């Protein structure tokens, strides 16, 4: 075990959190270090923190752990990191001032594998199992507090033995006699068990031999070879039957398919004849349609088609020109009343935009009137609120002038009396119920002693009830005298509530007045702005009317209503655009007139060409209305499309008929070929059937059962009757197999039983031999255990020998390794005159005389105890526990400086050899000079602080 790190907070004189890392390079290199400081600085507190983190105890405080918390703090904690068996652990314990003995929480965390224990009791048990030491033993071997350093040297033999047992795990020797007794009982039980098993196994052997003889007699009565031969022959016949049935079925199936194919062939030949007739009719209709289409594909009809299309295009162009002509004429018609040469459009435009700007400004007379009405309403509301405010101020002044005095202390006393009255009533009811129960139980008890005890209780209850009733009456009298306070309190409370209510109302009125005043101010500003706008607007109205009449005079009534719209300026832009395009429109009108005349000439020429073509191809088209020419000609085109569609349908129909004819031809050829193939297969199936029928006849001759009449036929043709016959034969053969199989199974079961019984018999004989061998071994073990029992019961215990050996070894190490250096005139021995482990010291100064260790002086006892503790620590390090930490609190103060000069260097040399962690607490000046690595504890006022120094 090795201490790695200590963290603690609010412990004794250490206020706040402190950390001591024992693994820092300074402390690890030195190995031996000094914890120094003035008296009361808190040196021993460091060791107390280690024991607190491991065992939840402090050696100096016994059980009152809460005294370990720093003054002025409610809680404290200690966190210790330590290593045991190459695993690192972290123990955490928290103290609270309210918990005097038991710490509030304790946790152990294994940093190596992550295991976590939270329960305090579980943590303490686990740490004890890790260290193999309880708290007292830990303070005698690892951390030696003040005054406890020499306890192992002078402790009683029982304590020494307990420490040795825990550290070196000697408890396994405690129960050796119990172990021997258990082993003897177990051996006796096993012996009796083996004897019983031997008897049982012999009985089973005799029974199995009898069963084997009976089964062998049954097997001798069955001719198994004959049965197997018949069974094989029946299986062979079944296989042949299955083949015959298969070929018979195949033959019948093929025959059926051939018949079906012949029927299908006759049907398809008939269908082929019908298709040929249908093809002839469709071809005739198609030729008629081709003759009708020849006219529509002629050159004359195509020319006519082009002339008609050209006629339609010319008519469309004419209509478009006429439409454009009427539109331009209409635009010029609007402006015919204007003197276009002398009309000043810019002046009209200027007047229009001046009026448009005025319209955008505008003035809302209705909104202005609404603002005035709202101002009058708000002014009326303000006057009403001011009147209410004045009245509330008068009420508050009148309430403040009336003074009401009220004694609160008396009223509190009155309320307390009412509560006390209720408490007395509950107690009286409770004790009355208890008294009635006691009286009822008193009538049922007959025991004199119980009756006496019950009477005492009844008297007590009656006296207590009488006392409670008197107190209640006194309280009720006082309550009656002070009852007037309720009315006074209500009057006082009413006045306060009225005063608070009036103040709240006044505050609310003030808030409303402020809001109303702000609204009035805003409204008056709006009214002022609107009044200014109204004056400006009235000045602009006269100018607007003047401009409007001037525009009307210049453009006329119709143009004014159509284009003068102050809400839509786009109309004015359209009017301006038309006025600017007047000259262009006149040119366009002349151009369109000439185009229409030219187009009429073209239409007349094209119409003459159409009439000439119609006379050549004998087509009747009505020319009474040239615009209807398109509709008349479209009828001819529709008839052409209908004829083409019909021709296409007949082409598709003829193609389908041809495809069907080809398909039928291929199907007819395929059916004929299939019929020929099936006839070949039919012949093969007949040959297979005949061959297997001959094999069947041969196999039936070897059958010992009844012969079937079918075997006497020379040949057989497959038919439904033959199929049914062979199916029936197969069923008969299957029933024969069942009979033969049962007989053979019966034989096999008997034979298998004989084999199994023989194997079981062999195993039983082996078991008998094993049982006899185990009996011999058990008897030998029993004899040895009896001898061992006699030896142990008459001799000292084995555990005592082991303890003696270990203590001798510890004393030998202490004498040779430590006392021979630091105190060479002394040596430790065990008192051989008794079996107790009492230590003696042999002194060379006294002529090698031995004496009790308690006779040593203080300095001698310290050095002897130090040697013994170091030797004990060496033994622990060499065991599987490996405790490498060793802390010593004081003790060196009893040595003079010359002795210290000899002891300390020797201890340092030994520590450097074995790498042990040794910590010494002392305020001896020589140690401060000799041990260069120190944990220095300083106390300033009531607070301690820690520093690690190396000189």
UniProtKB/TrEMBL annotation:
Residues 465-526, 754-788 form a coiled coil. Pfam families: AAA_23, SbcC_Walker_B. Keywords: Coiled coil, Exonuclease, Hydrolase, Nuclease. InterPro entries: P-loop_NTPase, Rad50/SbcC_AAA. One of its GO terms (biological process) is double-strand break repair. One of its GO terms (molecular function) is exonuclease activity. Signal peptide: none annotated. The keyword Nucleus does not apply. Gene3D superfamilies: P-loop containing nucleotide triphosphate hydrolases. Residues 5-217 form the Rad50/SbcC-type AAA domain. The keyword Membrane does not apply. This is Exonuclease SbcC. It comes from Borrelia recurrentis (strain A1).
């Amino acid at each position: 075990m090795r201490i790695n790190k200590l963290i603690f907070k609010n412990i004794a004189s250490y206020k706040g959190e402190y950390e001591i890392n024992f693994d820092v390079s300074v402390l690890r290199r030195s190995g031996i270090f000094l914890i120094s400081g003035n008296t009361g600085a808190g040196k021993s507190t460091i060791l107390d923190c280690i024991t607190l983190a491991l065992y939840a105890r402090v050696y100096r405080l016994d059980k009152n752990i809460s005294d370990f918390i720093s003054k002025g703090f409610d809680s404290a904690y200690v966190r210790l990191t330590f290593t045991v068996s190459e695993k690192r652990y972290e123990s955490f314990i928290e103290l609270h001032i309210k918990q005097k003995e038991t710490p509030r929480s304790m946790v152990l965390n294994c940093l190596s594998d992550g295991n976590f224990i939270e329960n305090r009791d579980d943590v303490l048990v686990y740490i004890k199992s890790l260290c193999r030491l309880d708290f007292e033993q830990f303070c005698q071997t690892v951390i030696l507090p003040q005054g406890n350093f020499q306890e192992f040297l002078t402790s009683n033999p029982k304590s020494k033995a307990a420490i040795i047992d825990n550290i070196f795990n000697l408890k396994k020797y405690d129960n050796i006699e119990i172990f021997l007794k258990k082993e003897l009982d177990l051996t006796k039980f096993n012996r009796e068990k083996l004897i019983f098993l031997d008897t049982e196994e012999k009985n089973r052997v005799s029974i199995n031999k009898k069963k084997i003889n009976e089964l062998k007699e049954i097997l001798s009565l069955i001719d198994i070879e004959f049965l197997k031969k018949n069974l094989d022959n029946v299986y062979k016949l079944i296989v042949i039957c299955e083949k015959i049935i298969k070929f018979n079925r195949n033959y019948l199936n093929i025959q059926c398919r051939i018949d079906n194919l012949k029927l299908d062939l006759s049907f398809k030949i008939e269908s082929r004849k019908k298709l040929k007739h249908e093809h002839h009719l469709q071809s005739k209709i198609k030729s008629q349609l081709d003759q009708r289409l020849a006219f529509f594909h002629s050159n004359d009809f195509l020319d006519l088609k082009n002339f008609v299309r050209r006629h339609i295009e010319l008519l469309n162009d004419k209509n478009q020109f006429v439409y454009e002509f009427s539109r331009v004429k209409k635009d010029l018609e609007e402006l015919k009343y204007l003197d276009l040469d002398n009309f000043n459009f810019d002046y009209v435009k200027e007047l229009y935009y001046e009026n448009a700007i005025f319209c955008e400004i505008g003035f809302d007379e209705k909104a202005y009137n609404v603002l005035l009405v709202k101002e009058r309403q708000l002014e009326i509301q303000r006057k009403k609120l001011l009147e209410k405010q004045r009245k509330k101020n008068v009420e508050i002044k009148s309430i403040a002038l009336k003074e009401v005095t009220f004694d609160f202390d008396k009223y509190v006393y009155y309320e307390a009396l009412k509560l006390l009255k209720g408490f007395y009533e509950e107690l009286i009811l409770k004790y009355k119920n208890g008294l009635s129960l006691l009286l009822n139980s008193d009538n049922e008890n007959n025991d004199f002693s119980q009756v006496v005890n019950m009477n005492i209780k009844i008297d007590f209850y009656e006296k207590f009830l009488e006392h409670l009733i008197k107190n209640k009456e006194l309280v009720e009298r006082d309550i009656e005298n002070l009852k007037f306070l309720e009315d006074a309190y209500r009057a006082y409370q009413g006045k306060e509530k009225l005063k608070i209510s009036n103040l709240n109302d006044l505050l609310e009125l003030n808030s409303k007045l402020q809001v109303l005043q702000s609204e009035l101010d805003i409204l008056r500003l709006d009214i002022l702005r609107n009044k200014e706008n109204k004056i400006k607007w009235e000045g602009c109205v006269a100018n607007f009317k003047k401009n409007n009449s001037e525009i009307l005079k210049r453009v006329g009534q119709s143009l004014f209503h159509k284009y003068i719209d102050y809400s839509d300026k786009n109309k004015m832009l359209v009017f301006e655009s038309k006025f600017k395009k007047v000259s262009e429109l006149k040119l366009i009108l002349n151009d369109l007139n000439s185009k229409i005349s030219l187009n009429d000439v073209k239409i007349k020429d094209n119409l003459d060409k159409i009439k000439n073509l119609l006379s050549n191809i004998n087509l009747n088209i009505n020319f009474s209305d040239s615009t209807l020419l398109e509709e008349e000609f479209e009828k001819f085109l529709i008839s052409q499309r209908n004829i083409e569609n019909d021709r296409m349908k007949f082409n598709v129909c003829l193609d389908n008929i041809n495809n069907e004819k080809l398909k039928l031809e291929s199907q007819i050829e395929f059916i004929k070929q299939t019929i020929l193939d099936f006839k070949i297969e039919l012949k093969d199936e007949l040959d297979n059937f005949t061959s297997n029928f001959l094999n069947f006849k041969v196999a039936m001759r070897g059958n010992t059962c009844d012969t079937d009449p079918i075997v006497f036929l020379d040949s057989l043709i497959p038919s439904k009757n033959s199929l049914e016959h062979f199916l029936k034969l197969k069923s008969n053969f299957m029933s024969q197999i069942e009979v033969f199989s049962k007989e053979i199974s019966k034989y096999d079961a008997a034979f298998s039983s004989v084999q199994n019984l023989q194997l079981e018999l062999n195993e039983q004989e082996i078991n008998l031999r094993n049982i006899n061998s185990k009996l011999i071994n058990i008897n030998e073990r029993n004899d040895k255990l009896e001898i061992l029992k006699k030896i142990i019961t008459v001799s000292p215990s084995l555990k005592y020998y082991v303890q003696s050996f270990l203590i001798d070894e510890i004393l030998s190490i202490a004498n040779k390794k430590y006392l021979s250096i630091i105190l060479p005139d002394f040596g430790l021995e065990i008192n051989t005159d008794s079996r107790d482990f009492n230590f003696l010291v042999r002194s060379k100064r006294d002529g090698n005389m031995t004496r009790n260790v308690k006779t040593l002086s203080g300095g001698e006892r310290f050095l002897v105890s130090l040697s013994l503790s170091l030797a004990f620590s060496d033994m622990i390090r060499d065991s599987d526990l490996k405790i490498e930490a060793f802390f010593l609190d004081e003790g060196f103060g009893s040595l003079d400086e010359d002795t210290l000069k000899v002891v300390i260097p020797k201890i340092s040399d030994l520590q450097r050899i074995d790498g042990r962690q040794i910590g010494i607490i002392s305020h001896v000046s020589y140690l401060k000079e000799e041990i260069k690595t120190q944990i220095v504890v300083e106390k300033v006022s009531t607070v301690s602080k820690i520093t690690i120094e190396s000189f």
